[in-house]
Design brief:
Helices cover about 75% and strands about 0% of the residues. Helix 3 packs antiparallel against helix 4. The longest helix has 14 residues. The chain starts with a helix and ends in a 5-residue tail after the last helix.
Length: about 120
């Protein structure tokens, strides 16, 4: 059921219906599924809704399942920064960079690291 929910939520997200996408995922949140993509998408939707503490938890689940996704690390870093955990955000931005990002996201990551006081 959660795989279908993830696909439906992605379709809603593509249509700009983020609130519907979030509602679908929240109604299908698997307690211990092994789906890192589900948790990362939930984190993204929480983040876009301004619910950064919830986003952090969702991203933590996703990263525990698959810590190799640069975009997941980036989302985690953004929400960690939003909840005031600058040291953890810095570490997550570094991990995002190391995991690999598109050129645009790599530039954004570097800008955030510079804003948090890291020289490159």
């Amino acid at each position: 059921q959660y795989v279908f929910a993830r696909l439906l939520a992605r379709a809603y997200l593509d249509q700009g219906a983020e609130a519907k996408a979030l509602a679908v995922l929240e109604s299908a949140t698997p307690a211990e599924s092994g789906d890192a993509e589900f948790s990362a998408l939930l984190g993204l939707l929480y983040q876009r809704a301004g619910r950064h503490a919830d986003a952090v938890k969702a991203y933590e689940r996703a990263l525990a399942l698959d810590g190799r996704n640069g975009r997941t690390w980036l989302g985690f870093a953004i929400s960690m920064e939003a909840v005031g955990r600058s040291d953890a955000a810095r570490d997550a931005y570094r991990r995002a960079r190391e995991a690999g990002l598109s050129e645009m996201l790599a530039r954004y990551t570097q800008q955030r690291l510079a804003a948090l006081g890291e020289k490159h």
